Amino acid sequence: MLNIALIAHDRKKDEMVNFAIAYEHVFKPHKLYATGTTGGRIMENTSLQVHRFASGPLGGDQQIGAMVATNEMDFIIFLRDPLMAQPHEPDIIALLRLSDVQGIPVATNVATAELLVKCLERGDFAWRELVHKYKPGIES
């Protein structure tokens, strides 16, 4: 079971919900995390259970970032809106930087998200289990 974060900016929330519907069968056995509204919308439209953090502007991105910093997050789908300025842009950049530091795969658009989910479906994320098993301070 992997820990997967689902985040979507306002104009990308419908896209995230449709993505979650399309890949519900793949996400079902995993532990899902999301920022507030995104998680709520996913749960309203699927049978998936999602641990909801605060909304992004209220610290949700930072809460997910804390999991990334401790290497507790296995991958992130973050459907960003590149055409809209975000008031919490520093938090977004910090989350992406932490993901790079920890080697956590991040998809910022549906095309890349689909590639990650197809890898998940095939079992290509088994390497994350090794990270959890052998990295000091990480519980299995």
From TrEMBL:
It is an enzyme of class 4 (lyase). Gene3D superfamilies: Methylglyoxal synthase-like domain. Its EC number is 4.2.3.3. It catalyses: dihydroxyacetone phosphate = methylglyoxal + phosphate. The keyword Metal-binding does not apply. Residues 1-140 form the MGS-like domain. The active site is at 61 (proton donor/acceptor). GO terms for biological process: methylglyoxal biosynthetic process. It comes from the Bacteria. Keywords: Lyase. One of its GO terms (cellular component) is cytosol. Pfam families: MGS. Substrate binds at residues 9, 13, 35-38, 55-56, 88. InterPro entries: Methylgl_synth, Methylglyoxal_synth_AS, MGS-like_dom, MGS-like_dom_sf. The keyword Cell membrane does not apply. GO terms for molecular function: methylglyoxal synthase activity. Belongs to the methylglyoxal synthase family. Catalyzes the formation of methylglyoxal from dihydroxyacetone phosphate. NCBIfam families: MGSA, PRK05234.1. This is Methylglyoxal synthase. It comes from Cohnella ginsengisoli. The lineage of its organism: Bacteria, Bacillati, Bacillota, Bacilli, Bacillales.
